[in-house]
Amino acid sequence: MVVQSGSTVQPSPVADPEVLEAYRHDASPVIGNPEGLLRPQTAAEAAFWLAEAAGSGTAVTPCGLRSSTTGSGLAPHGWVMSCERMTGLIDLDPERRTATVASGTVLREFKDAVEEHGLFYPPDPTSEGECSLGGTVACDASGARTYRYGATHRWLRGVEVALPDGSVRWFRKRRSDKDATGYAGMRDLVQLMCGSEGTLGFISKVEVDLIAKPEAFTAGFAFFVDVASALSFVGLARDEDRARSGVRPRCLELLDGPCLEIMRAQGSGIAIPASAGAVIFFEEEHAAGGDMDVLERWWALLERSPGALPDDTAVATDRRQQEELRTLRHAVPATLNEEGHSFAPSGGKKISTDWAVPFAELAPLMSRIDAWIAEAGLSRTARFGHVGNGHPHYNLIVRDAAEAAVAHELVGRMCAEACAVGGTISAEHGVGKVKRNYVHHRFGELELAAMKAVKGVFDPASILAPGNLFPE
Ligand SMILES: Cc1cc2nc3c(=O)[nH]c(=O)nc-3n(C[C@H](O)[C@H](O)[C@H](O)COP(=O)(O)OP(=O)(O)OC[C@H]3O[C@@H](n4cnc5c(N)ncnc54)[C@H](O)[C@@H]3O)c2cc1C
């Protein structure tokens, strides 16, 4: 079967249950049920299969490397279409600082490739070694450095997309400084594709903006007696008037007391003071040799922050030390995941949140939520995440199905409160199948109807990514 200029398509979707088994799972508790697997090598091949599917009314769920925590890349029925065979850097323009990359490329591999040319792609989800560029666009992924650099959508220039009408299209952002033509939210269809979670089309190529690779950066763990004082410090460090704050963070991340216990148990060389009840992980970029100046300014800020333990600050100025801090931080989610899995036989698990609020609302909301958790009697909670962006992850470890029901009710309440104060239910992992029943907190009926109408334009037969994003 020939699609265009000699490229062939796979003769039929793979139906071998042993092959399909891997496509039934991602990083969420959801289990998929794909009936066939497509692994197109070109956009034209993807478009061919999408048109076939639209003609026969077969559902198609696009997927990347299946690191989603929301089950969004899992097919409840029909076919799953993976971009894993579309890999590699297609074009790099160091002058314009842009790159075009195939959607199945692992994000970390892409970042390493551009860094060899002295360039830098800022989005940094913790999963960067296990997720695809296409997946990060479809979920509008972000990470610790989003505090300084924003999420994936800010770095997108364009996307090539295969659509169910059998066409392949490029959507690109306008490059003029100003534009007053049409609905501001729809001037760039590329932004519609970002966060679409597979519901609008299959992304085959991604064009992004790059910046010069920062010369150097300093990272540190600043310890505090409790979470409240750590959050007050973050408020000071966020002050955009640098004459007052003295610092220019690129990330501001919280780890609470239970996270510190996990870090202590790793037995690393980094001393964690016994009196600490929270830590803020920070990074600041600077010119080579500028580390002492940066550290002095962080110390000065810590010294005037109530509840800080400035003398215990652990700093990392070289690559080995920075890796040590990073490894220690990453041990926390890994350990909590294992704890959650250990309760699976009795119906227990880890239930985590992804809501975010304006920073000014964060401390009061967290103290309300902590009171609800104590009242509900849940025994194990750990909080970490991107507090500089008002985005902590609550991790509730539940031991059985009864505790899970309590935790799910609490998460619903957190989402409602977050939206009530101007926040959102998902700040980076997306909605998928796990959070779609909280979507009504975020969007009213009119907004959902508008989104469904847009989906109807791209996917009139409604074959794409059933079960994602929209409430049941
Ligand atoms: C340990 C761990 C840490 C994580 N940390 C972060 C984090 O810090 N920040 C963050 O944002 N996320 C994080 N995630 C979530 C996840 O890695 C991201 O959502 C990532 O963007 C998913 O990419 P993927 O390639 O694995 O996509 P998949 O999981 O395969 O799919 C995710 C969604 O993208 C759609 N999709 C994938 N490829 C395409 C395509 N080519 N065309 C159209 N739609 C497509 C799918 O339909 C689905 O809706 C983490 C996950 C894990 C397991």
What does this structure look like?
The chain is of the alpha+beta class and 472 residues long. The chain folds into four domains: 83 residues, Uridine Diphospho-n-acetylenolpyruvylglucosamine Reductase, domain 2; 124 residues, Uridine Diphospho-n-acetylenolpyruvylglucosamine Reductase, domain 3 (2-Layer Sandwich), CATH 3.30.465; 120 residues, Alpha-Beta Plaits (2-Layer Sandwich), CATH 3.30.70.2190; 87 residues, Alpha-Beta Plaits. Helices cover 35% and strands 21% of the residues. The longest helix has 24 residues. Bound molecules: flavin-adenine dinucleotide.
Features:
alpha+beta; Uridine Diphospho-n-acetylenolpyruvylglucosamine Reductase, domain 2; Alpha-Beta Plaits; 4 domains; seven-stranded antiparallel sheet; binds flavin-adenine dinucleotide
How is the secondary structure organized here?
Blueprint: E1 2-4, E2 7-8, H1 17-21, E3 36-38, H2 43-56, E4 60-63, E5 79-82, E6 89-93, E7 98-102, H3 107-115, E8 119-120, H4 133-139, H5 146-149, H6 152-155, E9 156-162, E10 168-172, H7 189-193, E11 202-209, E12 211-212, E13 216-224, H8 227-237, H9 242-245, E14 251-256, H10 257-265, E15 278-286, H11 291-303, E16 314-316, H12 319-342, E17 347-352, H13 359-376, E18 380-386, E19 391-400, H14 401-420, H15 439-442, H16 445-458
Parallel strand pairs: 3-5, 4-5
Antiparallel strand pairs: 1-2, 6-7, 7-11, 8-12, 9-10, 9-11, 13-15, 13-16, 14-15, 14-18, 17-19, 18-19
Helix pairs in contact: 8-13, 10-12, 13-14
The site of flavin-adenine dinucleotide has 38 residues, from strand 4, helix 4 and strand 11.
